[in-house]
Amino acid sequence: MLEDKTREKVRKKCPRGVYDPVRSILGDEILGEIFLSVLLQCSRLVFRLNLNNSVFLDECWELPDCLTLELVPSKALGICVTFVGGKAIVAGIKRTSVAAEDGKVCVGDILEELNGNHVTTNSHGKLGAIMRKGSGKPINLTIIKAHHSKTGDLYPPIINLLHRARLDPDDVRAKQLAALHGDVCSDDALM
Questions:
Q1: Which of 24, 57, 154, 175 is most deeply buried (CB count within 10 A of its CB)?
Q2: Range(s) of the chain covered by CATH 2.30.42.10
Q3: d(CA 98, CA 69)
Q4: Where does the PDZ domain lie (predicted)?
Q5: Strand, helix or coil at 83?
């Protein structure tokens, strides 16, 4: 649509004074054609926007890694969460739990969604009921990772949340590195 409107402005000469040929791309014939070719390429791009990944856009333009997991049916997930700033931070993972099976859920990650329910401070005390409601069915989770998969660095907005949750970012990073090598923390789980 933008491409069509721009083509109309570039190829059909607009009345003099509408676009300045010196200062405007649309007023210059050659620059206008170059701009049209860029718009044509942009119209061919496929964007896959994951809105679950937008929770920190108010704080940072850099997007964290976001995982959607389906775990085997279980009565307990095997994680302990603490609520800080409206977000559920994974504070511990039981070694023998379904959450610990593949090492994808780590201490410091944020539990964004559980079985289709958005997890916020209002969910405090209701997570067990959400698990019981889905009893016998696969457990669906959306996790916002505390670290970047490419660099291994902690995601900057999560560092502040870790401090507020009284979790040491260096300890969280060490546990995440251990999880990448198949080890998980041995904290007791509440969920």
A1: 175
A2: 51-180
A3: 11
A4: 66-133
A5: strand
